[in-house]
């Protein structure tokens, strides 16, 4: 899709960027999904990281085209919290299965992105090592079943995890917060605009971006294939670990769950196809 003659994005491109931003914001808060992964799939992860790692240098060139993405991100992140809490409480297993379908449908696109600069033996080693590490981490957290009382410091930690899920694709902040019992109070606090949650969460996220954005950006610049295949391993392991196995024991529940997974896959593939047609520079 071409831009207007003055170089500005067309109305469709602007709207599409808002939709992409909303999905990234949605992915940032949904269990098992990483906003960073969606950013990679949509082709806007790199400019976002360039802006975060060098905000003064890249402000004029990057901010104008990322404004609709940021608008959509806020809409997706804040607007979904209450809806998410409702569906996770009312229909937990079908909701999670829909998310699994969305992630699974995005894996082919993510695999293509990972191989954009070729694949080496180190790429495959990175994939396997990261996958095994995440499996071990999540299984360990499930076995220990540690729960903590939410407070200011723990919400700082939630903000850290949230920012990490955006700047480090594949890292879903819910992965660490759910076993600790922090995910639900954090999401509820966001949905109700609770300042005792939003302020420490925002501070934690901001500090994380300042400390780690430049390092992660350099990692992808210098070791693109290895870093990206590591992401693939993380996404695969995290997706497998959120499958509600026990709900597949009942025939009725299994059918509903499978339908939700299929719907998620179809939606993800359709989104990927649409995204490939609407080029956002």
Strand content: under 5%
Summarize the amount of helix as a percent range: over 70%
**H and E string:** HHHHHHHHHHHH
Main sheet specs: none
Helix count from the secondary structure assignment: 12
Unreliable segments of 5+ consecutive residues: none
- SSE-based structural type: mainly alpha
User: Rg from C-alpha positions?
Assistant: 18 Å
* Terminal Cα span: 10 Å
The shape is: globular
**What is the average per-residue confidence, as pLDDT, rounded to a whole number?**
81
Would you count the extended β strands for me?
Answer: 0
Task: Describe this structure as you would to a colleague.
The chain is 80% helix and 0% strand. The termini are close together. The chain has twelve helices and no strands. Helix 1 packs antiparallel against helix 2, helix 2 crosses helix 5 and helix 7 runs parallel beside helix 10. With 281 residues, it is mainly alpha-helical. This is DUF368 domain-containing protein.
